[in-house]
Amino acid sequence: MRQWQINSNDGIDALELVETGSREPGPGEVRVKVHASSINFRDLSTIRDPASRNLPLPRVPNSDAAGEVTAVGEGVDGVAVGDRVASCFFADWEDGPCTPAAMASARGGAVDGVLAEEVILNARGVVPVPEHLDFVEAATLPCAALTAWNALAGVARVKAGDTVLLLGTGGVSIFALQFASIMGARAVVTSSSDDKLARVREMGAWKTVNYRVHPDWEKEVLDLTDGAGVDAVVEVGGAGTLERSIAATRVAGTIALIGVLTGGQIDPVNIMRKSIRLQGVYVGPRNLFLAMNRAIAQHRLRPVVHEVFSFDAARDAYHAMAAAGHFGKLVVRVAP
Predict the structure, then answer these.
(1) What CATH number does the domain located at 145-280 have?
(2) Burial degree of 296 (CB within 10 A; 0-12, 13-18, 19+)
(3) Alpha-carbon torsion 52, 55, 56, 58, what sign?
(4) CA-angle at 169, arms to 164 and 170, nearest 5°
(5) Could you tell me the end-to-end alpha-carbon distance of the chain, in angstroms, rounded to an integer?
(6) What predicted TM-score, i.e. pTM, was given to this entire model?
(7) Which of 32, 198, 259, 265 is the most exposed place for a label (fewest CB within 10 A)?
(8) pLDDT of residue 200
(9) What's residue 260's pLDDT?
(10) pLDDT computed for residue 45 by the predictor
(11) What are the tens digits of pLDDT across the range 167-206?
């Protein structure tokens, strides 16, 4: 059985593909033959700088996988050999608010990840995947999709008729656009690419703003909402975009803070003045994953996959993430 490992602090090209032993699942565990694993910006950040995260090495990267259960351990209920499943981002977060224990079970960081030909997982750390999705599509769900769902359905409690602001066209933002559509909400999407903005309009975006053409893009968003601002923001940029997101949000609106893609500092005064709710989102629990999958199945929603890489070319997937030219998700196909 082969797996990719982080064995040093030397970045993407230092990733090693190694041969390791296989084992049987223990009590409460399942063994999964991995068919696909998707890439998130967090995975790239971990590979680039494991030292700052105090990760013990070697460490298997990636939180997101989909595959087939090939063995179950003693005491496992509800999961059987042959089931098609996806990994949960957290090995141990069933429901409720995030806890230190849940954070300590994050795959591909605090514990080993899933970029391997087979993995042993906690049986409560997998979920069945919607029947209409293939393994590549299902592998995109554990982090980006659940983060977007948690931001809109969990934190912002978006309802039909609401207006949401989505920054960029990466995995989280594209899932948020799809979810906003099935919720009956209007989405305003920003990007520096007119081609990408044309694509999101085809997917149902209500309005779009090119932030290179309009550097003060928050003013454009306010104009689009008659000066009121949006009801909710899925904020993937971080400190570098947060002040503009605050300005673009209505009084008593909600900002789901997800990303750290841009550096900078913020002045919190306008959060207070506008009574804005600013909530950090760290993916979500298993029960929310199950609820999201029910919605995906009901609406026959299909994830947007930008490119698929072979298992042996996994390094190329991280380089593609670093280049930031993707629209939707990047996926490594582990097995046919």
Answers:
(1) 3.40.50.720
(2) buried
(3) negative
(4) 110
(5) 15
(6) 0.96
(7) 265
(8) 98
(9) 67
(10) 95
(11) 999 999 999 999 999 999 999 999 999 999 999 999 999 9
10 Å Cβ neighbour count for 314? 21
The structure tokens listed for 259 are: 């990303």
Residue 211: burial class (beta carbons within 10 Å; 0-12, 13-18, 19+): middle
Residue 298, token pair as written in the block: 């009901």
Identify any residues that bridge with 164 across adjacent strands, giving them in sequence order: 187, 232
pLDDT tens track for 59-85: 999 999 999 999 999 999 999 999 999
- What is the residue whose two structure tokens read 């996926």? 331
Question: CA–CA separation, 217 vs 34, rounded Å?
Answer: 42
CA distances from 293 to 202, 224, 303 (A): 24, 32, 12
Structure-block tokens of residue 25: 């699942």
Per-residue pLDDT at 264: 66
In the chain, domain spans:
2-140+303-333, 145-280
The domain 2-140+303-333 is classified under which CATH number: 3.30.565.10, 3.60.15.10, 3.40.50.300, 3.90.180.10?
3.90.180.10
φ/ψ (deg, to 5) at 103: -60, -30
- HSE (side-chain half, CA atoms, 13 Å) at 138: 25
Low-confidence ranges of the chain (pLDDT < 70): 260-264
